[in-house]
Amino acid sequence: MEQTNYSMVTYFIIKGISDAPELQTLIFITVLLIYLLTVSGNMIILLLVCLNSHLHTPMYFFLANLSILDMSCSTVTLHVIITSFISRNKTVSFANCLAQVYFFSCFTSNELLILSAMSYDRYAAICKPLHYHMVMNGRVCKMMAFVCWILGLIEMIPYLVLLLHISCYKSNIINHFFCDIMPVMKLSCSDNSALEILIFTEGLFLMSTTPFLLTFCSYVFIINATLRIHSNIGRRKVFYTCSSHLTVVVLLYTTLFFQYLRPRSVDILESNKLFSLFNTAAVPILNPLIYSLKNKDVKSALKENISKIKLKV
Fold first, then answer.
1. Helix, strand, coil percentages in the chain from 3-state DSSP, rounded to 5
2. Per-residue DSSP letters for 265-281?
3. What predicted TM-score, i.e. pTM, was given to this entire model?
4. What is the mean pLDDT of the chain?
5. Overall average pLDDT of the 263-281 stretch
6. Cα(256)–Cα(111) distance, rounded to whole angstroms?
7. Rounded to 5 degrees, what are φ and ψ at 309?
8. Partner of 77 for a Cys bridge, out of 5, 280, 298, 306, CB 3.0 to 4.6 A?
9. Does residue 6 or residue 89 have the better pLDDT?
10. The pLDDT value given to residue 150
11. Which residues pair with 173 in a beta bridge?
12. More confident residue, 178 or 203
């Protein structure tokens, strides 16, 4: 039931991907399969990195962090569709809704930061090969990952505080398939100027632009170093080394751009759902595929572990 002009919200109603009753079962099965594939694919990557000593390198250490983030992001968002279909209940409490906003934004921010750390790792490997193991030692990698996680968790606290201070909502029906900051903010009839300024300053520059610039600068140096390589084989090796990471970066930033940084004139809620679905479902499932299909080390580790399992059986 829609509510208007009330000072306290106890729950929200999530509309979901579609209102059509005949599509609900299809949506549920599709989302469930995507979620299971996402978790299993990223779990395989995580286990391979943990169990195989030749994958104990900075690149795969950050890839393991990326897998954890992909599983976490999918769980926070897609579980709403799955549980609402099973329970036939599309309501979510106010506290749970804000928790979804917080953790989804944290995980997205963390992912951008981890990707920028991975780009620095590629820069160090290609541009400073003689000093690579000294620059990217285990202690440095752990510290970089720790900083990425802490920054992601801290950055969203001001948003959460401002959302808690929203005192008036035009409706409690969220036209989305999970609680995201923009759909929740659009329901508010309070003054959102402080939140909008925060989204534009911290959200655009600190959470998005800074990791993008770090990644972009790393690849400028990588491209410059690649152009100085006279051998075609050497250039191909550099491209092969960076292609998986670059593919993931392009996918994620393109999706986030169309989801959050489009002009208001083309800000259509249904298209936002589509980009959100791609960001929360397709990107996490593509990451393990991109890294496994294009990476000889991962494929070799997978074959090695399958052989060990067969021998035990």
1. 80, 5, 20
2. GG--HHHHHHHHHIIII
3. 0.86
4. 82
5. 65
6. 12
7. -65, -40
8. 280
9. 89
10. 93
11. 13
12. 178
Distance between CA atoms of 98 and 180, rounded to whole angstroms? 9
CA distances 76 to 48, 132, 232, 303, Å, are 24, 36, 45, 32
Q: Is 187:171 a contact under the CB 8 Å cutoff?
A: yes
What is the pLDDT confidence band of residue 262, given thresholds at 50, 70 and 90? low
> What residues contact 245, with CB distance under 8 A and at least 6 apart?
115, 118, 119, 122
Residue 161 CA, chain-centre distance (Å), reads: 23
Contact in structure between 4 and 165 (CB atoms under 8 Å)? no
Other residues' Cβ atoms within 10 Å of the Cβ of residue 226: 18
Average pLDDT over residues 2-30: 76
Three-class secondary structure of residue 115 per DSSP:
helix
66 pLDDT more than 50: yes
Q: 45-79: string of b/e by CB count within 10 Å (b at 16+)? A: bbebbeebeebebbbbbbbbbbbbbbbbbbbbbbe
Return the DSSP state at 207: I
3 state DSSP class of 57: coil
